[in-house]
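Honest question from a wet-lab person: if I give you the sequences of every part of a complex, can you actually get the arrangement of the whole thing, not just the pieces? Trying it with mine:
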Amino acid sequence: MKPDRVYAALAAAGAALATVPFLGLPAFYESFLYLVFHWIVLATSWNILSGYSGYFSFGHGAFFGAGVYTTAVLAGKYDVPFAYTLAPAAIIPALLGIGVGAVVFRVRGVRGELFALLTLAVTFVLATIVLNTPVDGGPGVYLSAVPVPRLAPTPSGSFYVMALALAFVTVVIARAIERSRLGLGLFAIHDDEDAAEVMGVPTYRYKLLALGLSAGLAGIAGGIQALFVSYVTANSTFNITVPLTVVLMSVLGGSRHWAGPAIGAIAITVLLYFSTAADQAVAGKAVVGAILVVAVLIMPRGLLGHWQRRRVAANGHARPAAAEVTRDDAFVQARDGNTRNCVLSLRAVEKSFSGVRALAGIDLDVSEGEILGVLGPNGSGKSTLINVVTGHYRADRGNIAFEGHDITCWPAHRIARAGIARTYQIPRPFPHLPVRDNVALTAIFGNAAQRTAAARACAQQWLDFTRLGARAEAMPGELNLHQTKFLELARALAARPRLVFLDEVLSGLTPGEIDEAVDLIRRIRDSGTTVVFVEHVMRAVMAVSDRIVVLDQGRVIAQGNAAEVMARDDVAAAYLGGAHARRA
Amino acid sequence: MTFPSATLLAQSALSGIFIGGLYGLLGLGLGLTWGLLHVINLAHFGFAFLAAYLCYQLASVHGVDPLATLVLLVPVFFVAGVAVQLLLERFRISPLNSLLASFGLTAIIEAGIQAVWTADFRKLESSYAGYKLQIGALYVPFPEVLTLFLATLLSFSIWAVMRYTDAGRAMRALAQDPEMAAAYGINRAAHAVLLSGVCGALAAVAGVCLALGFTLTPSQIYAWVGVVFAAVMLGGLGSALGPLAAGLIIGISEALTMAFASPSWAPIVSFTLLIVLLVLRPARA
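Yes, you can. This is the full assembly:
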């Protein structure tokens, strides 16, 4: 379905459901559907951070609860009209979320399970504070005197309308994010956060933004729920039910899809309702537990994930192979031949890892439009050099300047945006994004800074450039090594970098594939990108480099014309061992 | 707030040590599977409570000595631990999904307990509960001494096994790099199953201690989750002695918070310690 048609269908469904309170049905139906919408909001809002980025939060109860108590205190204790409490009920949890995120996301070690448990801890800390301060103080807060806004003929109808509207808005937001650069960035964080940052995704800001949005939406749901139950206590608000239920719903429905949590919410709410209504609460609990076990074991991607995968598998082989187009000419720019500006310069750059000096004072200049080969034995600091320049590690000492900017302390995504791209020696494609989106990602977040739709078209061009055009719809796991390496290249190039680092793109390729790659590297330079390539395949280095630099033990030991440098004794000694040098 | 007397302070510190022992005992099994097998087994709490209820049943209805029930419960829960690992191994599950699946299992266990024993409070009345040792002005109930003793004994035993035996070395190698360890001839599946069984047995021991010292109700399963997780993370994943040390620190801090402030502030202690540790020393995590 086309995106606009999805929104149209959602709007039509929303409009149809909005007529329910005016049909004169028994209040039971409205209250039951209220619960369904309530859980759709909570599960879908949780999914915006946790499903998309993979940071599972068990703290959704804290944000929900902050919303509950914001409305309860404002409306119940200070007589603020209910409608005016909903904005603070969104803002306070959102700020709480951003505050928690600002602490937790700064800690590099906090990934996955630790994030889950830390956010759970926040729930209990907040509950304790609420219970021990005048916010609640113990007895709970009554809202029975607060008037319910009249949006429908009956109070239950009014709750129904509020929850429906919020559910509609939440689902539309989730869908819009999934299609946006924020969504693509979050999916990339899910698959490989370090690589995402190096490709230019502002990971820290995106995680905070997603957590803030997620918490704010949960807070509004909490505000409405406070009035709905009309009596709130800390124990009934801040417990483990909310976080576990939303996780269950999203995992069951499929957490990588905007509609997954909503489908899971409907299924679980209906199931829970009928099992408790039939006076079988205990059996209901066991059934939900059993569903969770079976769902996680058999369909870890959820209903929608399972279905999508089957569909992709069915379509994958039927797709006809598109013609492979090489579009050299389109990208060739007139290169400025007379003035060679220095694009990148390193001065006395040092980097140590717990005592081991990987870079021991590197001085290096890279000229605009050149192909610079970087050679050196294993452990000489080649990969560290790339990691430090691209911002994956921060230099301990020294300065790095790129096109006149001091980038030494910039975060990786800012460096990527300024125009430096890289490939990984061991390819690190985002395994759950199709090949085309892998490439589009850098077009969006890199120097090219394309809009989402244009980036997808641009991605196709670069896939054609690297002869992967026919594989655009495939998942990275379906590619062979040669294709995966070229995907790394396409991904680096789609950023339209001013400078690209190629980290051993040739290793593991056959001689024929190497010739193809060498040709590609020349074409990259001809398109206006300066190339620094780290390589062991000597034949290729000699063939394609304008200049080479040799590293040994974290220092530059030689640089200049390829043939001259390789003839030097100290280079041979570093490269081939002392014995060889003495014989020579 | 009035300043508590020295006796009260000593008494609360002492009770903190004892409750800390139980945190450490529960955390030992949880942390071993988490750190070494990358399985976050929430069902560890379910197993401990199931063992506690079985101990209660055997002791109060069938008149078995509560400590004698260990002879039956330890092998039974060893098998339960083995079964969980076999199931998870079969589906090659990620750590996060192991948390979800074992939560589902815990919900099933909770429902089962509720169906058999109802949601009412159950308290095992045994002769042990009556024993109290007196040290000066301080009273020390026997079940709590026993819990601390068992927690210490088991933590040090497992530490010694991990450090000095081939099985322990193999286990640590597997935790660091399962594929390389397997390449050097270590049978991953067998060691994982064995460790998971041992953790099941540890849950049974913790269960008996729970039954001796605490009033049981099914929903209490979740009351322990937060604090014990905090102890495991403070102590270090996969560490044998860490959870006990961290458990004692948390237990004492909680008890002193109760004495100085009010009991309702106690839940904040463990999580504050945890957050502070993570922010100050992220590498620890």
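Two things worth pointing out. The longest helix of chain A spans residues 27-53. Chain A touches chain B through 43 residues (CB under 8 Å).
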